[in-house]
Design goal:
This is Helix-turn-helix domain-containing protein. This protein is mainly alpha-helical. It has two domains: about 1-65, lambda repressor-like DNA-binding domains (434 Repressor (Amino-terminal Domain), Orthogonal Bundle); about 65-113. The chain contains six helices and no strands.
């Protein structure tokens, strides 16, 4: 439920609403809403319907909502990791070539002796 609370907090911030604003619209106390955002309180289906309506989205959209900025960061992170993986792959190929060269060198020395 902490993830849902984070999503709700993010949506609230995007709307520029305070916890008090949302609590009033949901007809609950500020501490009760704060507990929802922090994940202390589990949200029942009727409260989930209220919250999703408040943010003008379906329950499914609310539950699957992802921060667009976080998605950009994740894409950027993925790009960095992908580049690092490619570089490591090239290093492995170089090391394999060195192993083959050393093996060939050892083999030629044995054949020479």
């Amino acid at each position: 439920m902490k993830l849902l609370g984070k999503k709700i907090r993010l949506l609230r911030h995007q709307k520029g609403w305070s916890q008090e604003d949302v609590a009033k619209q949901l007809d609950i106390s500020i501490p009760a809403f704060s507990k929802i955002e922090t994940g202390i309180t589990d949200v029942n289906l009727s409260r989930l319907e209220q919250i999703s309506a408040l943010f003008d989205m379906s329950i499914v959209q609310l539950l699957t909502y992802n921060d667009p900025e976080q998605e950009i960061k994740n894409a950027s992170d993925l790009e960095v990791v992908s580049k690092q993986l490619h570089e490591r792959g090239l290093e492995v190929i170089d090391l394999q070539k060195k192993v083959i060269e050393l093996y060939e060198e050892i083999r030629s020395v044995k054949n020479f002796a």
